[in-house]
Specification:
- 2 copies of one chain form a homodimer.
- By secondary structure, chain A is of the alpha+beta class.
- Chain A folds into 2 domains: 64 residues, Winged helix-like DNA-binding domain superfamily/Winged helix DNA-binding domain (Arc Repressor Mutant, subunit A, Orthogonal Bundle); 51 residues, Dna Ligase, domain 1, CATH 3.30.1490.
- Chain A has 5 helices and 6 strands.
- In chain A, α1 crosses α2 and α1 packs across α3.
- At the A-B interface, α4 and β6 of A face α4 and β6 of B.
- β6 of chain A pairs antiparallel with β6 of chain B.
- The structure holds a DNA duplex.
Amino acid sequence: MTRQRQAILEVIRSDKRHYTAEELLSEVRRVLPNISRATVYNNLHALEDARLIRRITGEDGSDRYDSSYIPHGHFICSRCKEIYDFEIPEFSSTLEGLLGDKFDSYELKVRCVCPQCRDRLREA
Amino acid sequence: MTRQRQAILEVIRSDKRHYTAEELLSEVRRVLPNISRATVYNNLHALEDARLIRRITGEDGSDRYDSSYIPHGHFICSRCKEIYDFEIPEFSSTLEGLLGDKFDSYELKVRCVCPQCRDRLREA
DNA sequence: CTCAAAAATTAGAATTAGTCTAAAAATTTT
DNA sequence: AAAATTTTTAGACTAATTCTAATTTTTGAG
C-alpha cells in the first residue's frame, strides 16, 4: 500500500459519489500533485483485484468506481445523470436460482428520473 | 429507412449474437462495400432512438447491439466472453416496486462461467 | 417534373478513455 | 548497503467513438 494507492482509496471512500478515473486523478493531485495518470489506472486495477473497490461502467462509457466491492444495484437519473446505490433484497439468490449455479458478479443499472428531477419537471 | 439503415438492421436481426459497431461495419460491407463507419454509428443511434434495437455495454468497454429493444438480462461468460440473453420473471415489476415508480430501462449483466466452459474446465 | 431545402452519407480528422513502455524512484530482501 | 523487486512517472500509443465539412440522396412545394 503505497502513498499513492492510499490517497486514491481515501478519495474514493470520502464520498458516496462514483468517480471516474479522470476525476480521481484531479482529486488526488490536490494531495500528491505529481501523481501520474498511469498510477491512478494501475492502482484502480490493483484495488479492484484486492476487492477493495468495484468498477462499474458509466452511462457515457467511461468507468466509474464504487467504494464497495459488494455488488448492488445502481440507478442513474436520466436527467441529471447522478448515480445512486440501491439494494434488491435476495437478488443474489434469485439470480443463482435462475442461472442454476453460482455467478462471479453482476452489474445492474436502472435508468429513471430521480425524485429531485421529477419535482423540477413538475414545476416547469 | 435508407438502404444503409435497412442493411444494418438486417445484420443485427440475422443472428442472436450481440455485434459491436465494428463487426457490423464489416458485415454490412459485404452488401454495401462503400458504407462508412460514421453511417453505421449514426444509424445505430437512430435505430435505438426508434426503439428497434438496444445498445448494451460490452465487458471490454465497446458497445454491443441487441436485436430486441425490450430490456432483459445478459449473462457473460467469464471465460469465453460470449453473451447470452436471459429473462427474469416479473423483474420489471420487482424493480418498480423497489424504486416506487416507473423506470426508463435497465441493464443487467451477470458474469459467470457458461455451461460449455464449465465442462471444458472440468475435463482439464 | 424540377428546383430548393432538408436529411443522410462519406472520408477522414479529432477526441477520449484507457493501455503500454522504458527509465527513474522507492521499497524490500539479503 | 548492495541487489532484486515493485511502483511510479511522462509521454507515446491504441481503440472506440464522435465530429466535420463536403457530397449525395431524398423529399416536397409549386
